[in-house]
């Protein structure tokens, strides 16, 4: 391979050749995406249609002389713009985090000398020298390997280090995890040493391909953004058309054109709910705070709502469903499966087994913590778990060894201790058992017959089928000379150690909760199929009749065939980043809202493509964290359930205040439209319309945004991600409630005008009735089913405070003379207040009766369907 790349395995590249290649291939750095400039990101925050409408509303407010109202709207828009800018700008940093994974330094052979160069100066053809602790600076083909193991979890998702071997591969196009003669940029050498020739640098590496995918994947619009955009278009068209019609109708009836023009403009400003964006932001922000307390950090506000309508979760295995650490869980001895913590009399008999596990081991104790290969750390930890002190065999000294390699698949050490010399062996069961002549059983050492050997291998096979990594342990007395491979004979078999990266204890319950909430959970991992199946079965993802689909099988299927196969699949194994992207795209194309969890670099492109990316905050790579929308600070899959719940709460609250705002604004429009159609005087002056808008649209809507969750919110299936904001009868509820609010307010105006012929008094009473009707509506908007009598106001103290503050403003504009003069109001007598309360409260009761009729109709329909 080195010769094919124009390099010498012993001498390396010449300095001049290295400079030429650096010029030809470019620096060994990951590609930079052409991301938008900070200024462009900020300006884009004002391109949303609803934001443009509100900018127009602000200009109209200024034109009416209502500078305070205009400034308030502008302040809301600027705050939202800065918040959106901050979130988007941080998202663009994901590629920067990926670039930091490249090695800052590399040891290479050039001109026959070993030297250290910058990672960016490594070129194809360079000869790399690597040892434990090094980060691989570029993709490379192995030339030599001595007990070399590399941690590749960030690329393949496998929790165990991969043993490397320079031997040719059996065939082409193997998954990354099976390319044992290759090293990949950004991975870590955890054991041994090796020599390799660089085959690819920068954007041509596997890491570079991931970076390229991240620059080309576009982040789609969230469901919330789509629905708000739809709502904005609808509101603008409706409000402008109705306001223009009312103004035109007034002029045709002979009213003052100047007054009618400003009345139309005021009505348009009042009818557009300028509090909607800030209320959405506050509702999302409250959801963020609640999720943060539940150990889920949200990086993008719309992600809260998007998570609430997720229909499928594509979850990584390693570090997400499992703990990402090997654990010695079981012990096979004499055809019995034993738990290490529950050893009885066997503990004394099996002391030599634990002695072998600790002595045939390169893990080391540093500052009261074990360091080394995860499997060897697990073996030592298992001995501690079984009750043996850490210094139990400290008197033993290593005199020699036959190191592990991928061909022999075993390791032997020669130890000298108080009881003399011995060889201690661990490795793959088939290799170790074949070299055993005796075994440790009940009553001592016995000859190992062929039938007994078959029983041992059958036990190892059964444990491997349950995703355990199985090691055989053996020993033999030794004569006192350095051993070789030929001396690994006549061993005494001690037992089998069964190790596994265990599932998190709460993972199974979290998966079950997801299923109850109507969410499909699909495991997507780079690990082996047997391991994926065992973990998926253990946590409840893989059920009877379902299967595990391998990445190489996916390559043979087109998209329609793959979609059919996915219907019966619970886990995907041996997959690459491209496979993950393909699956995420396929689910999105079928109308699903996709949530993707992960922690490795290999997860980053799919995290960015998915509707909601969820990364592990503790063990996750920086790339995954930057690409994700949500970080789990406890790396706990169960935290996702709480996050989904908060997402549903947020969306419910958005529906509540959208219903409240639009019903209220519909009532305001109908008051003006009804009076115009009847040819009566204006029931509200332009300044009074703006006052009603200010008093009712602000604080009560914000308070509804923090309403507590309804019971049973996690017992219902996800909502249809395609549903509009007015789905499930919300549009009808808004119209009914709006007609009631507008009807009782117009009736108050007409009745007072008829009885008193006092236009100013009639307008004041109409304004008060309109505000009180909306206050009552703020209470009954908390439920789409219950009536006003079924609402418990004290459950949302913020709403009570908001209504109190709004009422205080209304009272001041009536009874404080300077304000009364500005707003054209007159003081009301107790009888007037009784009339306003009767009409507004009666409207609330009428709306509650409508809700009861809806509920009864649903129950009858459900009963008829179930017959």
What fraction of residues sit in β-strands? 15-25%
Please mark out the parts with pLDDT under 50 across 5 or more consecutive residues, or reply none. 94-103, 216-220
Oligomer: single chain
Taking all Cα atoms into account, the compactness measure Rg is 36 Å
Distance separating the two termini: 73 Å
Mean pLDDT: 83
The total of beta strands comes to 26
Structure class = alpha+beta
Approximate shape: elongated
Helix content: 40-55%
**Number of helical regions:** 31
- Major sheet: 9 strands, mixed
Quick overview:
By secondary structure, this protein is an alpha+beta fold. It is built from 31 helices and 26 strands. Strands 10, 11, 14, 15, 16, 17, 18, 19 and 20 form a nine-stranded mixed beta sheet that branches.
Distinctive features:
nine-stranded mixed β-sheet; elongated; alpha+beta; eight-stranded mixed β-sheet; 49% helix; 867 residues; 17% strand; 31 helices
Explain what the structure shows.
The protein is of the alpha+beta class. Helix content is 49%, strand content 17%. It contains 31 helices and 26 strands. Strands 10, 11, 14, 15, 16, 17, 18, 19 and 20 form a 9-stranded mixed β-sheet that branches. It has an 8-stranded mixed β-sheet with strand order 8-26-25-24-9-21-23-22, sandwiched between helices. Strand 14 (397-402) and strand 15 form a beta hairpin. The radius of gyration is 36 Å and the shape is elongated. The N and C termini lie far apart (73 Å). Residues 94-103 and 216-220 have low confidence and may be disordered.
